[in-house]
């Protein structure tokens, strides 16, 4: 396998003109990765953070403009309370620890989801991170937190219904562009490539509207083991596909 050191630069078998602008990831398998090593699930989440940090740097090194990650779904509240509490604390700890460096590297950080349901201290840290990096021009790093694709669409429909009820909008004026404007991700391009780790082949309520024509790649490795070599394989698969968007 090509060494990680050599993969600091874009591999020569990838065409820089055909890279995805926007990569989305479902970071699956942290808990199972930890269990296989007879460690608690939280250990897998900690290792997963290291994987994410390197993937973000890899996007910068290889010229990929945007990375969106599924950090916490609306369904994840059903996990054991101690794990949920750990994840909330981990989000805040990582932001506090990494924010200055990410800002220096010109990363623009955005959070999408029902953020008002998150702990108040985490909401404050999120607001600080987005404010500090709002004008950065590097990788656009979007973290989907307390996010659910169906809930996102429902919220957009409610906002449009309120506009119709108030007489500011006619039903026939509603089109895809208007719906998209009312989604959490209105400022983002749709993902070109969505990667899910751990061998699972589900969207799991992630970017349902936005992934209509996204190329999906399933990696057999658990998230903590998703290194630059695995990302390289995903990008090779992407570049070997023909994106026809329903055309012949």
Oligomer: single chain
Structural class: alpha/beta
Number of helices: 7
Distance between the termini: 37 Å
Indicate the proportion of strand residues. Answer: 5-15%
The ordered string of helix (H) and strand (E) elements is: EHHEHEHEHHEEH
Structure summary:
With 248 residues, this protein is of the alpha/beta class. It has helices at residues 30-36, 41-62, 81-104, 120-133, 149-165, 176-181, 228-239; strands spanning 22-26, 66-73, 108-112, 140-147, 193-196, 215-218.
Describe this entry's structure for a reader:
This protein has 248 residues and is α/β, with parallel strands linked by helices. The protein has one domain: Undecaprenyl pyrophosphate synthetase (3-Layer(aba) Sandwich). The protein is 41% helix and 14% strand. The chain has seven helices and six strands. It has a six-stranded parallel β-sheet with strand order 3-4-2-1-5-6, with helices on both faces. Helix 4 links the parallel strand 3 and strand 4. Helix 1 crosses helix 2, helix 2 runs parallel beside helix 3 and helix 3 packs parallel to helix 4. The longest helix is centred in the middle third of the chain and has 24 residues. The chain is globular and about 60 Å long.
Outline the fold blueprint.
Layout: E1 22-26, H1 30-36, H2 41-62, E2 66-73, H3 81-104, E3 108-112, H4 120-133, E4 140-147, H5 149-165, H6 176-181, E5 193-196, E6 215-218, H7 228-239
Parallel strand pairs: 1-2, 1-5, 2-4, 3-4, 5-6
Helix pairs in contact: 1-2, 2-3, 3-4
């Amino acid at each position: 396998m090509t060494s990680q050191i050599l993969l600091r630069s874009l591999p020569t078998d990838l065409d820089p003109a055909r890279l995805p602008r926007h990569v989305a990831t479902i970071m699956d398998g942290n808990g199972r990765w930890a269990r296989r090593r007879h460690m608690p699930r939280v250990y897998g989440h900690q290792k997963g953070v290291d994987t994410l940090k390197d993937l973000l740097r890899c996007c910068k090194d290889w010229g990929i403009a945007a990375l969106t990650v599924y950090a916490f779904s609306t369904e994840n509240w059903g996990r054991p309370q101690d794990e949920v509490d750990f994840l909330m604390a981990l989000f805040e700890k990582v932001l506090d620890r990494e924010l200055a460096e990410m800002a220096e590297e010109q990363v623009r950080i955005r959070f999408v989801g029902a953020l008002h349901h998150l702990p108040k201290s985490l909401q404050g840290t999120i607001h600080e991170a987005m404010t500090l990096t709002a004008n950065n021009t590097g990788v656009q790093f979007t973290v989907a937190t307390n996010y659910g694709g169906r809930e996102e669409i429902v919220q957009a429909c409610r906002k449009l219904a309120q506009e119709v009820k108030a007489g500011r909008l006619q039903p026939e004026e509603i089109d895809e562009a208007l719906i998209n404007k009312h989604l959490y991700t209105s400022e983002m391009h749709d993902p070109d490539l969505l990667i899910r780790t751990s061998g699972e082949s589900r969207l799991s309520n992630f970017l349902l509207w936005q992934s209509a024509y996204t190329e999906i790649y399933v990696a057999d490795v658990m998230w903590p083991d998703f290194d630059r070599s695995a990302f390289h394989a995903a990008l090779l698969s992407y570049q070997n596909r023909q994106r026809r968007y329903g055309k012949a």
